[in-house]
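Supplementary Methods. Inverse-folding protocol.

Structures were first reduced to a discrete structure-token string of length 256. This string, shown here, constituted the complete conditioning input.
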């Protein structure tokens, strides 16, 4: 099974999606998609800076340094969403974050797909999660790539449980679909009280009996960060849930 999945990975992805980086380099945010894409010739690299603002507290004026915002850096909404998705990032910006900015402003998200536009016809719709690319892909029965988007899987080890959290590898079938109000029943640990609500998981799509699935998230941080589920942008999760997958749709989660 593993050999088959590895072979499939070679077919479904473009090998040049990310440049190789030195894992021993201790550079801030060097483990994020944005940093890796900054090494590609198709991108310029923007480093998030801070700005100083003044806040009045009575007669006192306090100066405070805060990071630049998405809206300030990219006023055009469509362009901003493109950059966020390319960088697999939707959290508030922090000082020093590298943001990969496409040099060609006329390109769309489809132009930056790390997946092949066509594969050998699978004979049925398939949903792919590729941890190496931090991305998902939806293929039609004829092998055409219909849509792709950013996706983050489980981290190597969760600090709150101290267990391995990587998303399970395998070939699955969708067994359950949630809605906009879906949420976790486990995380954060001890959730369920008013002071500790369970994490939202909008448009949840379950592919494994123990609860693994795809869902929307406002915590796309540019690298694997979940307890095992596949995080996507919420609009992508809604599209997958409402317009692509059905109960029984084949889903493939590839190796890290």
């Amino acid at each position: 099974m593993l050999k088959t999945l590895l072979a499939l990975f070679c077919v479904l992805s473009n090998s040049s999606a990310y440049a190789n980086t030195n894992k021993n380099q201790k550079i801030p945010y060097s483990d994020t998609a944005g940093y890796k894409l900054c090494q590609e010739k198709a991108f310029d690299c923007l480093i998030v800076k801070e700005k100083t603002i003044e806040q009045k507290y009575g007669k006192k004026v306090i100066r405070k340094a805060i990071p630049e915002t998405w809206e300030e850096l990219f006023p055009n909404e469509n362009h901003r969403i493109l950059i966020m998705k390319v960088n697999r990032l939707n959290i508030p910006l922090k000082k020093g974050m590298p943001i990969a900015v496409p040099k060609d402003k006329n390109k769309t998200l489809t132009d930056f797909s790390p997946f092949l536009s066509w594969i050998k016809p699978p004979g049925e719709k398939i949903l792919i999660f590729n941890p190496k690319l931090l991305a998902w892909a939806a293929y039609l029965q004829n092998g055409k790539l219909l849509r792709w988007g950013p996706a983050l899987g489980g981290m190597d080890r969760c600090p709150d449980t101290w267990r391995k959290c990587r998303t399970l590898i395998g070939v699955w079938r969708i067994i359950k679909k949630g809605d906009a109000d879906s949420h976790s029943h486990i995380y954060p640990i001890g959730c369920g009280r008013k002071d500790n609500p369970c994490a939202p998981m909008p448009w949840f799509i379950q592919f494994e009996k123990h609860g693994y699935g795809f869902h929307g998230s406002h915590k796309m941080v540019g690298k694997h960060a979940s307890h095992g589920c596949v995080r996507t942008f919420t609009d992508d999760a809604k599209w997958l849930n409402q317009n692509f997958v059905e109960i029984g749709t084949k889903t493939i989660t590839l190796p890290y």
